[in-house]
Amino acid sequence: MSNYRFRRRRYRLITGLLVFVALGCMLYLFSRYRGYQEGIRIYDAIRSSITVEEPENPEREEDIRDILKDNLPGQAWIYCPGTPIDYPVMQSGDNLYYLTHFPDGRVNGNGSIFLDCRNTSDFTDDNSILYGHRMMNGTMFGGIAKYTSTAYYKRNPYFYLYTKDASYRVELFAGYVLDGGDSLPLRFAEEGQQAFIQEVKAKSKFQSDITPTMEDRLLTMITCDYEWNNARFALIGRLVPIV
Q1: Distance CA 51, CA 41 (A)
Q2: Helices and strands, number each (H, E), in the chain
Q3: What gap in Å lies between CA 25 and CA 195, rounded to an integer?
Q4: How many Å apart are CA 84 and CA 36, to the nearest integer?
């Protein structure tokens, strides 16, 4: 009889534990879903005053500059036509704050797209670095890690960067996986830029005919990757002014 009572108590304990774990998982998934939905709502509201989709249309550039100058403390705007990437670019005194904060300062796991705190805010460094989360619903920088084939690259060869004073077509030329502990240069010593370009093109998951010159400024966009522990995916292009 004692064995029977022991088995019943063990059964109840295991059942209770499984119910507790199931409820915890449900709450976690619900919380993530709410976070995703809040991110969609917030960013849709931010971009709601943009009336034109064509990336090199002066009206779109003007709409974005109005947002940056009047309504948002952002430094720039990053856009990739045909993808969810259409976001303001923030910057703070460290590379942690905007991992967990919306542009308006509210806490959320979506975070913001942000410029490396060491970069100049006008994108005049040799290499400006943007960071963003790889969200499971494909938002934020979730689409960057899709650049693992030349076919996908050819369908989406350009990003667009709009600052408060200038607009650029970002002509992509390399995308590769790197370790999260690697430090990418912001400024190059003599001959350093060409060595960097050759290295990343050799590692690239796609093939591009574009080879930047020493006069070109670069834009690097980084998000998480799951090829190995602490991996990151870096997508790199050169900045070409839109006249």
Answers
A1: 17
A2: 4, 8
A3: 48
A4: 13
Query: What CA–CA distance (Å, rounded) separates 151 from 47?
Result: 29
User: How does pLDDT run across 22-57, given as a tens digit for each residue?
Assistant: 444 443 333 444 556 787 899 999 998 899 999 999
DSSP 181: T
**Pair of tokens at residue 141:** 């920088």
Coil, strand or helix at 81: coil
CA dist 104 and 74 (Å) reads 10
Question: For the residues 61-79, what does the mean pLDDT come to?
Answer: 89
Answer yes or no: is pLDDT of 10 > 80.
no
Rounded to two decimals, the pTM is 0.85
CA separation for the pair 102, 109 (Å, rounded): 9
Q: Print the SS3 string covering 92-156.
A: CCCCCHHHCECCCCCECCCCCEEECCCCCCCCCCCEEEEECCECCCCCECCCHHHCCCHHHHHHC
Selection from 168, 166, 120, 142 nearest residue 235 by Cα = 142
Residues in the chain, overall count:
243
8-state DSSP, 90: E
- Tokens 């913001």 label which residue? 112
